[in-house]
Amino acid sequence: MAQDRFPGQGRFAGVGLGLRRPHLEEAAARPGHGVPFWETCPENVIGDGGRPHRDACAILDRDPVLTHGLAISVGGFDAWDLDYLHELGRFLARTGTPWHSEHLCFTSVDGSCLHELLPIPFTREAVRHTVARARDLQARLPVPLLLENITYYAELGQAEMDEAAFITEVLEGADVGWLLDVNNVYVNALNFGFDPKGWLARMPLERVAQLHIAGHTRFGTLTVDTHGADVIDPVIELMQWTLARLGRPVPVLLERDNHIPDLEDLLAERSRLQAAYDDVLAVPVRGEGHG
Amino acid sequence: MAEARTLTLQRALAALVLDPEGAAFEEDPAAFARSQGLPEADAVAFGRFPGGLAAYRELARLSLVDPIETMFPITKALLAGAGAWEACVDAFLQARCVASRHYRDIAPAFLGWLAETGWGQATWPYLLELAHAELLEVLVARFPEAALPQGLHSDPGPQDRLILDPATQVVSYRHAVHQTSEEAPVPEARPTHLLAYRDSVGRPQLMDLTPAAAALLVRAQMESLGEAAAALGLVDLAATWSLLKDLRGRGAIAGFQVAS
Fold this sequence. Notes:
The complex is a heterodimer. Chain A has an 8-stranded parallel beta barrel, surrounded by 4 helices. Chain A has 11 helices and 12 strands. Chain A has a single domain (2-281), classed as TIM Barrel, CATH 3.20.20. By secondary structure, chain A is an alpha/beta fold. In chain A, helix 6 (124-140) packs parallel to helix 7 and helix 10 (233-246) crosses helix 11 (263-281). Chain B is mainly α. Among the domains of chain B are: 1-66, no CATH class; 160-258, Outer Surface Protein A, domain 3. Helices cover 50% and strands 11% of the residues of chain B. Chain B has helices spanning 4-18, 29-35, 40-48, 50-71, 73-81, 85-95, 106-117, 127-141, 211-219, 225-232, 237-250; strands at 160-164, 169-173, 192-198, 204-209, 253-258. A 3-stranded antiparallel β-sheet of chain B has the order 2-3-4. In chain B, strands 1-5 form a two-stranded antiparallel sheet. The radius of gyration of chain B is 25 Å and the shape is elongated. Classes of the chains: A alpha/beta, B mainly alpha. At the A-B interface, helix 4, strand 5, strand 6 and helix 6 of A face helix 1, helix 3 and helix 4 of B.
């Protein structure tokens, strides 16, 4: 199913990096960087200008690219910005990305953008609403849509189902792919006290097209998905477990948005993750699916 | 609306993040939720996750405030020195004027809010100019590429009008806000004219202009250089052409074309 749904997926495997502003000049000048693909946020490129923008465009035109949106507010109520969606469609076509991912969350309320990934209530009403919005968004995009599971720090209102059921109902109701963030699963498991592998085993893994992996930070009793630290071994092990379960080499993206190290250090961490990726895919795997 | 409960919950979380009442949320989460019109079951649920919901207030506000603190360090130093920075940020967030999904637009939204509301300008009449000057080079550096008119030539003549590079801005202030620093954020009251432009490698540059030069750069976009120079009483045209050629060489002026 995954191969049929994402025909361009074969071009993307291994561990890629998020394209970040501090690295643009060096990455543009260094075609032999060894990164199999970049992930870029269209909001950071569309409508921008100047030298870093030119560097970003040079990389996007040269290297394999996946796209990942930050603030479309799939679960929100604000009307789509149709001009932006038009620009987004052109941008996706230009990059040649096989899919476009957005977060399963809301980011805007009554026209005000909060620039934070806010949790959708785990309710039947919210499922219906989000499914309708995701289907509508998918119809407006030139490539398949993926939705990403977020970290959440509180349930918003009285839940009628758990997170796993909510995500599954949205993905299946909207018939979209899944960008599975294994660090988010791990962080949620820490904050809410569940077994991440047991959680993943309940999920529709056949919908997974891509993985995210990142570092997190503990603040008191709460663990926050900061993207500001190295990936810890248990999260790498969860990535490997997931890849083995999937039984196919989906691309993994290392996210780093805070305390961004030099490109050389980030390349070294990417290599560490690539080795872990290669290790697990070098042996026979069990295959994907529920349970 | 069929999804009224979901929307009310989202509005409640936005209020928790942006409104002053959200600061006292943890004292009685359920009461806060009720004040937002939530039904009892949802209000009780707010009480089950006070730490997590409070984290959203902290994280989202950090996300919104970080680009402001980064882009306006001198404005922040000025207001923080008077104990007014937090109040300024609170008022900005409560105004909910960040509408753009582009993170880079948060700082311009703050500047727009200052201009629209006049916040603090009775006390600090140079506040808006100071904030504008802080953002100016960033706006110039990131100005989107734009097509230039065809047939521009490189040497100015009296019959020509000038075409600025699309990123170039000519600005005039009543205060020397470009000479402030975090240590000395209060500007001298002195009319100031600046040219902000991108150099040949795309870096933003700032140049002090005389009042006559600033006026020429503005007028000669709409009328011929000869007419503009005459209107401004510029008699040393050789010096004027030399300045214009220099600005073209620096990248501030895209070129010249015959005024129609």
